[in-house]
Amino acid sequence: MPTGQRKPAQHRNQDFSMSANYTFDDLKKDVAEGRIDTVLACQVDMQGRLMGKRFHAEYFVESAWKETHSCNYLLATDLEMETVQGYKATSWEKGYGDYTMKPDLSTLRRIPWLEGTALVICDVLDHHTHEEVPHSPRAILKKQVARLEAMGLKAFMASELEFFLFDQSYEDARACGYRDLQLVSGYNEDYHIFQTTKEEDVMRAIRNGLQGAGIPVENSKGEASAGQEEINVRYADALAMADRHAIIKNGCKEIAWQRGKAITFLAKWNYSAAGSSSHIHQSLWSADGETPMFFDKDGRYGMSELMRHYVAGLLAHASETTYFLAPYINSYKRFMAGTFAPTKAIWSKDNRTAGYRLCGDGTKGIRIECRVGGSDLNPYLAFAALLAAGIAGIENKLELEAPFVGDAYHGKDVREIPHTLREAAEALSGSEMLRAAFGDDVIDHYTRAARWEQEEYDRRVTDWEVARGFERA
């Protein structure tokens, strides 16, 4: 067996039956009858990762279901868990105190790929006031959802996730310095059935595992590069979809790791490979979720006036929201012409060269797809930023520009996606719309995160620089 490879775990609860609507009473019964012995209590960090504790299930159902605690540095670190200085909310001077983690029992679910395990997502509260921490990703999204509710509206969203699958384990990839990695396929496998058959041990486990965790899976497919995969799940209300997205990413990694393989959600893992996206489909419905508010059978393409204002808001504030769709230096290396990753923040009808694509025109399923985001985004922040921009368009009755027609990569004098993180960070910091929607402290917090990412990159020496200039400079 290759180094780092592990046999798939044998799970006592691996029946993969759907655990949607899994309740606290269900958990208590599973604990009492010995089916569940571990509960993962997770908050979502700034990077969209699950952070938290593994509780013995008996203790969780007795006590910890009410609340637990975490260090507040979890919402002030970078990818490497560095304690970044310059945040107002927490610092060495303030002593890095606690936050309260409040389990949202509506998110409770069994995790079929982990033996005897359930998971719950927690809201992050101030330790003293028990108010939600404003810069917590889940709180940011909930605030925008509440704004829509006050308008009698409900947002439904779906995020498509792409990733690359490797034959090596994470341990082997790290040991070889992430060089000479072996993809699971040797050629472009977009929609390719035979090649994806060779990957079914992992992808079938992912589909069935997510389905068993209460995440309705639609399909998986090969994507537009060697070793690239896509997983698609059914749309949901914005908060539920963000929760699903975070669990999907963590679950895909765990399931691949169990089988001695590795997955990356880097937006651009290799210069010669396609980037990995997280396209976000979005629509607004009536508060009861019954009436599609984006649809007007008499409107052009079936677009209602409300939808036109919403899309106009997305476009007007596209540069300001880009950081939340592309949060790292690497994210901007995905935006390359001719790669199906957009370079222009314009809208078009069923046109994959545009940053925003109209889908389902003329039907109740009409929606706008944001193609800007990479697979490295934090779904809570991305969804919240898009909703805030759309709400601004509705409130200000912004007029929608004409749709772009043709190849947007070669469009002249049209709105472009910021080329660098530095540019996106400045647009974020200067956004009056986002400051009004999220609050000054929240925007300052994430501007600091963006600038730290840039500062760290600016002082690093890359392999490319050394190979290019070692002898010739």
TrEMBL record:
GO molecular function annotation: ATP binding; glutamine synthetase activity
UniProt key word Nucleotide-binding: yes
GS catalytic domain mapped to chain residues: 137-473
Domain of life: Bacteria
UniProt xrefs under SMART domains: Gln-synt_C
BP GO annotations: biogenic amine catabolic process; biogenic amine metabolic process; glutamine biosynthetic process
Pfam families reported in the protein's UniProt record: Gln-synt_C (PF00120)
Keywords, ordered alphabetically: ATP-binding, Ligase, Nucleotide-binding
Keyword Ribonucleoprotein: no
Secretion signal span: none
Names of required cofactors: Mg(2+)
Family label: Belongs to the glutamine synthetase family.
Protein name per its UniProtKB record: Glutamine synthetase family protein
Species the sequence originates in: Sinorhizobium sojae CCBAU 05684
